[in-house]
Amino acid sequence: MTRDEFDVFCAGLPATTHVIQWGSASVWKVGGKIFAICSTWTEGQHDKFSFKCTDLSYQILCELAGIIPAPYLARAKWVQVQKPGTISDGDMKSYIEEAYGIVARKLTKAMQRELGLLDV
């Protein structure tokens, strides 16, 4: 998955917002809460994708070569995919959708209603 594909996919999820933070990181939010990040910290390196996980997904993904606990976010069960091809684009999209759902369900009912997300 490329950064552009990541951005297009995340933009297609309901009620998302996008900002560029921390230099050039592509940060996706729902209800003001981050669910996925694409970052490149060193010029010439490939993009790294980070997202929130369930406890089980976190355990499984952290056992794969090329995926680590996300820097600064691991305590909240975030992973970072560091190497292209570690997981398929389809799996990446599924995990990002799962991350979106985890974060959206933690929003207040009033916020979910305001964003039209009561069925998330």
**What about the largest sheet?**
6 strands, antiparallel
CATH class: Alpha Beta
Q: Topology as H/E string?
A: HEEEEHEEHH
Instruction: Predict the CATH topology.
Output: Aspartate Aminotransferase, domain 1
What order do the strands of the largest sheet run in, or round the barrel if closed? 1-2-3-4-6-5
What proportion of the residues is helical, as a percent range?
25-40%
> Structural class of the helix and strand makeup?
alpha+beta
- Rg result: 14 Å
Instruction: Choose one word for the global shape.
Output: globular
- The helix count comes to 4
**Cα distance spanning the termini:** 25 Å
Domain count: 1
Label this structure with key terms.
alpha+beta; Aspartate Aminotransferase, domain 1; six-stranded antiparallel beta sheet; 4 helices; 6 strands
Write a brief structural summary:
It comes from Kordiimonas pumila. The chain has 120 residues and is of the alpha+beta class.
What's the SSE blueprint?
Elements: H1 3-11, E1 16-21, E2 25-30, E3 33-39, E4 48-52, H2 55-62, E5 67-69, E6 78-81, H3 89-106, H4 109-115
Antiparallel strand pairs: 1-2, 2-3, 3-4, 4-6, 5-6
Protein name: MmcQ/YjbR family DNA-binding protein
GO molecular function: DNA binding
InterPro entries: YjbR, YjbR-like_sf, YjbR/MT2646/Rv2570-like
Structure notes:
The chain is of the alpha+beta class and 120 residues long. The chain has one domain: Aspartate Aminotransferase, domain 1. Helices cover 35% and strands 26% of the residues. It has 4 helices and 6 strands; from the N terminus they run αββββαββαα. It has a 6-stranded antiparallel sheet with strand order 1-2-3-4-6-5. β5 and β6 form a beta hairpin.
